[in-house]
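INTERNAL AUDIT FORM
Audit reference: QA-55
Scope: verify that the stored structure record matches its stored sequence.
Auditor: D.O.
Record contents follow.
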Amino acid sequence: MRKVSITEQPSHYDHLEQMTIGELLHHINDEDAMVADAVQKAIPQIEALVAAIEPRMKKGGRLFYIGAGTSGRLGVLDASELPPTFGVPDTWVQGLIAGGDVALRHAVEKAEDSPEQGWRDLLTHQVSVDDTVIGIAASGTTPYVVGAVSESRKHGLLTGCITSNPQTPLAEVSDYPIETIVGPEFITGSSRMKSGTAQKMVLNMISTSLMIRLGRVKGNRMVKMRLSNAKLVDRGTRMIQESLGIPYEEAEKCLLEAGSVDRVLKGKNNKK
């Protein structure tokens, strides 16, 4: 019989349907307040994984997130936000979800139950030993994720995981497990809540730290962001305006001609 994980254990709350809206919101917020502490305790694990990924990505290796359900969606979300924010190719960081892209909007029944499908999905991306695979699963037992990470490790890829339970099968097959022990969920077993919040925080930390270490940020500014809409053009213009002390119109003209904040600032510095 499978051991019940911490995230599936009943919380001390009961009769939720009898609570007022205010009581529900305050209790959910109380539970969410525990997440940052759980993530903080995992920082040494996160640091070790990021330090191992960095040299591989500097050699051209890629990072793959793989998960099912909420965990998979969060991986896809983090990966999809990096190209516009940091101006990196879509291939640098990729998110895979059990059931494919249709599972981003709709539940795909039993997609997560195959221990072989995750590795098959990774093979479609021609993964190599320079790549890294991070499995995301609150329970740490999802067959699709455990199988993908296990096979990745057997084939020489660097592996990590993000889970909300200690000593799980997923952690066992990972080189660098990250365990954010957030405790039972407000609604028993609903890992889209505290576990999902912890996963999002850890993904932010991993990807943002890597992008900074890979030279995609100057100071604290997104100087390589894609100018894909008016908001980002305005943001880039203001960065140049503040950095160079020039009028807004001149900064905007320089930005549109150069195509990125980074090119403008490098060009001005080279002329000095």
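Auditor finding: record pair retrieved intact. The CA atoms of residues 26 and 136 lie 28 Å apart.
Action required: none
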